[in-house]
């Protein structure tokens, strides 16, 4: 147990010193292994085992698919379709941002990619139409959390790899929570628009809807193929990721003819860099997870948690508070691989299934994407809007509270995460 505490203590120190998280985990793990007199070869063995996984191939493919969508003009066509569909509603540009983010999320699996691709287009449009810049940044940043929440989700792929469970089941279980978050965001955006007298931007025109449906047909078909293929058992999530890359390239290069050599190379390089960061993190984190389990630390922490209270409601609330706090300061994929070996025994002892906990954890960490001090999606959305950060954060708070309300609902009502997987 002592080496487990050494690992966690040193990890906290290194993170606060500003050491990149993957290197901090590796250094702390090595120090714990040496202190415990364990073979150093464990570092190499467990690092390789951490990334020697077929489901993890989905990560680079989904990242590349998201970048190709942006390069190939697929995102713009999705936005135009959404605008034709809901442009007549008050505050339509904000609602379009949420809906388009949800559609983009059904392919990319990344929050940063969502706010960059969708927010990069809708935030300037909202500012041009006299929306409060801070609200424009808030709605785009908040909507970006649908990226890693609505399937396919990179967070859930990492979680599935950590607990060795079905990625497909996690994807299916995340459908209801993702839709619930999107709905409450749309309702609040409409409420805000009505309260501040923001007009609609377009009239409802059937001809325009038909025209944009035709123009965006191939773009809208992409999530249908990907999610339909996964949920229908036609291909695995990893195979679906590869299909999404091929589809995005063909449509962007030969149908819409917007993918050129230059932006193809840019999309590929950005995907490679993001993939390298995630895989290095997973490799070192697998070592730390092994050390933590070998030290019997999870059992000790489980006993400590259960000694606080025997009430599952109280303990689930405490665990959610812990995850929300961790999400504020730690990169989400790192948080998953570090905390899963510690927290999973606790929640299973309280009656929560690994599937439900994976989705609860994912929602917690998604909220962290728009919560300071890290809040990478919030920072990016604010940077696009060029508005004071404190104003953007104030406008984002209602979205955060709504997401927390959904989080509590799926924590205490397992139906929302377990029913659909049990049926399909």
SSE inventory with pairings:
Layout: H1 2-16, H2 21-35, H3 41-51, H4 58-71, H5 74-86, H6 92-108, H7 111-128, H8 133-143, H9 154-163, H10 167-173, H11 175-195, H12 206-215, H13 217-231, H14 237-255, H15 261-294, H16 297-308, H17 312-329, H18 332-349, H19 354-368, H20 376-385, H21 389-412, H22 415-423
Helix pairs in contact: 1-2, 1-15, 2-15, 3-15, 4-14, 4-15, 5-6, 5-12, 6-7, 6-8, 6-11, 6-13, 7-8, 7-20, 8-20, 8-21, 9-18, 9-19, 10-22, 11-21, 13-14, 15-18, 16-18, 17-18, 17-19, 18-19, 19-21
How would you describe this structure to a colleague?
With 424 residues, this protein is mainly α. It has one domain. The protein is 79% helix and 0% strand. It has helices at residues 2-16, 21-35, 41-51, 58-71, 74-86, 92-108, 111-128, 133-143, 154-163, 167-173, 175-195, 206-215, 217-231, 237-255, 261-294, 297-308, 312-329, 332-349, 354-368, 376-385, 389-412, 415-423. Helix 9 (154-163) packs across helix 18, helix 10 (167-173) crosses helix 22 and helix 17 (312-329) runs antiparallel to helix 18 (332-349). The chain is globular, with a radius of gyration of 22 Å. The two termini are 41 Å apart.
């Amino acid at each position: 147990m002592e080496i487990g505490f050494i690992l966690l203590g040193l990890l906290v120190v290194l993170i606060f010193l500003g050491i990149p998280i993957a290197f901090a985990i590796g250094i702390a793990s090595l120090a714990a292994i040496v202190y415990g007199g364990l073979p150093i070869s464990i570092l190499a063995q467990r690092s390789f085992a951490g990334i020697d996984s077929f489901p993890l191939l989905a990560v680079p493919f989904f990242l590349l698919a998201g970048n190709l969508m942006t390069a190939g003009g697929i995102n713009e066509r999705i936005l135009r379709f959404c605008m034709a569909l809901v442009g007549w509603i008050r505050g339509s540009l904000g609602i379009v941002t949420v809906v388009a983010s949800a559609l983009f999320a059904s392919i990319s699996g990344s929050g940063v990619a969502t706010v960059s691709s969708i927010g990069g287009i809708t935030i300037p449009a909202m500012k041009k139409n006299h929306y409060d810049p801070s609200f424009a940044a808030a709605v785009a940043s908040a909507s970006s959390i649908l990226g890693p929440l609505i399937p396919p989700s990179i967070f859930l792929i990492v979680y599935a790899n950590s607990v060795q469970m079905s990625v497909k089941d996690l994807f299916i279980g995340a459908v209801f929570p993702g839709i619930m978050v999107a709905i409450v965001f749309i309702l609040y955006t409409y409420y805000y628009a009505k309260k501040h007298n923001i007009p609609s931007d377009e009239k409802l025109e059937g001809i325009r809807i038909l025209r944009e449906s035709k123009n965006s047909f191939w773009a809208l078909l992409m999530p249908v193929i990907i999610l339909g293929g996964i949920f229908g058992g036609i291909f695995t999530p990893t195979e679906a990721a590869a299909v999404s890359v091929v589809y995005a390239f063909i449509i962007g290069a030969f149908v819409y003819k917007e993918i050129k050599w230059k932006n193809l190379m840019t999309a590929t390089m950005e995907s490679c860099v993001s993939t390298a960061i995630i895989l290095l993190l997973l490799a070192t984190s697998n070592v730390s997870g092994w050390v933590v389990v070998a030290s019997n630390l999870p059992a000790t922490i489980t006993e400590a948690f259960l000694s606080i209270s025997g009430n599952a409601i109280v303990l689930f609330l405490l665990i959610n508070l812990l995850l929300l706090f961790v999400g504020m300061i730690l990169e989400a994929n790192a948080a998953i691989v570090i905390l899963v070996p510690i927290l999973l025994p606790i929640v299973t002892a309280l009656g929560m299934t690994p599937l439900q906990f994976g989705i609860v954890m994912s929602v917690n960490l998604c909220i962290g994407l728009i919560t300071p001090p890290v809040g990478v999606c919030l920072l990016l959305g604010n940077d696009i809007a060029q508005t004071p950060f404190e104003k953007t954060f104030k406008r984002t708070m209602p979205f955060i509270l709504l997401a927390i309300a959904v989080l509590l609902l799926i924590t205490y009502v397992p139906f929302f995460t377990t029913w659909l997987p049990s049926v399909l």
